[in-house]
């Protein structure tokens, strides 16, 4: 199953959009470096629509206890309901529990079209 979800230039770096792949609601994300990623539009916690969340960065621990660096700007998807954060470029894995993740779909291109498939 595959679906054309948009034209390449309809989604700018740092933006997300809702779409459908067959019967599945999905979210398509474009990270600041221009990569496209697509996930099931449903949080692994309690099912919130991830498309109502935000793309942001995350606080990552340093070697010094109690100190954090803010990294991965635009590569984290934060759920709108309870704030769980997912790493877009790491298979949609939840930062707090990497065993949980958003279901990821394949993204490819046909001319100017962005195509999502199972
Ligand atoms: S539904 Fe997403 S964090 Fe709870």
TrEMBL record:
Pfam families: Rieske. Keywords: 2Fe-2S, Iron, Iron-sulfur, Metal-binding. Residues 3-116 form the Rieske domain. PROSITE patterns: RIESKE. It comes from the Bacteria. This is Rieske (2Fe-2S) protein.
